[in-house]
């Protein structure tokens, strides 16, 4: 029985650090899940398939003398992606507060929880997946929640800590090419090969990529 090797990569989910994708170490706590959708020559087309925080980042946020508030919603983007968003927030001391603790009352927790859910639904349902991922990276949703909840009980360290894709539309190559404008094919393939421990193929790929870089060739290379 024979099969094409590239078919084994399709629909596999790979976990990478956002710091590696963007070259920013400040984003090392954010883990991005990418699913391989198609293979073209030596390039692998991937799309966003979820997000999560590292364990050490989550543990560093939890501190004493404050209240933890969590919310999760099921939303649908304008391009028909169904996602599950998990938000985390912590209360903070008010301005000029003398008391060292900042515990919120049950009614305040419920009101903040309601606002967090409303903002997540509003922000996610009004854009497509590409725009929503940009909001996750720039923390615009968390900043909006902090502003809105100031009148109830002030919050700090508001993050979308986890994203799950529950249902995705049918694969569209043209749409995928638009979504992946910030991720190069070569870099994603390097991460995939390192994940699969393909040492020999990884060495050959680096040698070929180095030669292409020196010759500055931008043509598509067919798989042998």
Q: Using only CA atoms, what is the Rg?
A: 21 Å
Number of helices: 8
Low-confidence regions: 181-186, 213-224
How many structurally independent domains?
Answer: 2
**What characterizes the major β-sheet?**
6 strands, antiparallel
Q: Structural class of the helices, strands and pairings?
A: alpha+beta
SSE order: EHEEHEEHHHEHHH
Helix content: 25-40%
Strand content: 25-35%
Specify the overall morphology: elongated
CATH topology name of the largest domain: Tetrahydropterin Synthase, Chain A
CATH class of the largest domain: Alpha Beta
CATH architecture of the largest domain: 2-Layer Sandwich
**Global mean pLDDT:** 82
Per DSSP E runs of 2 or more residues, the count of β-strands stands at: 6
User: How far apart are the termini?
Assistant: 20 Å
Organism: Eruca vesicaria subsp. sativa
Protein name: 40S ribosomal protein S3a
GO cellular component, one term: ribonucleoprotein complex
InterPro entries: Ribosomal_eS1
Task: Characterize the structure shown.
With 224 residues, this protein is an alpha+beta fold. It folds into 2 domains: 5-52 and 181-211, no CATH class; 62-167, Band 7 domain (Tetrahydropterin Synthase, Chain A, 2-Layer Sandwich), CATH 3.30.479. The protein is 38% helix and 26% strand. It contains 8 helices and 6 strands, in the order βαββαββαααβααα. It has helices spanning 18-22, 55-61, 106-125, 129-138, 140-148, 173-179, 185-195, 199-215, and strands at 13-17, 30-40, 43-53, 68-76, 82-91, 155-167. It has a 6-stranded antiparallel β-sheet. Helix 3 packs across helix 5 (140-148) and helix 7 packs antiparallel against helix 8 (199-215). The two termini are 20 Å apart.
């Amino acid at each position: 029985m024979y099969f094409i090797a590239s078919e084994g990569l399709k629909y596999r989910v790979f976990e990478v650090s956002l710091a590696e994708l963007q070259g920013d170490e400040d984003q090392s706590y954010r883990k991005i899940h990418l699913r391989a959708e198609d293979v073209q020559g030596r390039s692998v087309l991937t799309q966003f398939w979820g997000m999560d925080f590292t364990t050490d980042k989550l543990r560093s946020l939890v501190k004493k003398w404050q209240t933890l508030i969590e919310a999760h919603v099921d939303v649908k983007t304008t391009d028909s992606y169904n996602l599950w968003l998990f938000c985390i927030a912590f209360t903070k001391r008010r301005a000029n507060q003398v008391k060292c603790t900042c515990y919120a009352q049950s009614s305040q927790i419920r009101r903040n929880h309601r606002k967090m859910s409303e903002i997540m639904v509003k922000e996610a349902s009004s854009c497509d997946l590409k725009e929503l991922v940009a909001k996750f990276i720039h923390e615009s949703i968390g900043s909006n929640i902090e502003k809105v909840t100031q009148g109830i009980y002030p919050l700090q360290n508001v993050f979308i800590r986890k994203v799950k894709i529950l249902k995705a539309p049918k694969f569209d190559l043209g749409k995928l090419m638009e979504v992946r404008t910030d991720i190069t094919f070569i870099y994603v393939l390097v991460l995939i090969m390192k994940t699969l421990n393909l040492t020999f193929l990884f060495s050959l790929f680096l040698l070929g990529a180095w030669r292409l870089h020196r010759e500055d060739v931008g043509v598509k290379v067919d798989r042998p």
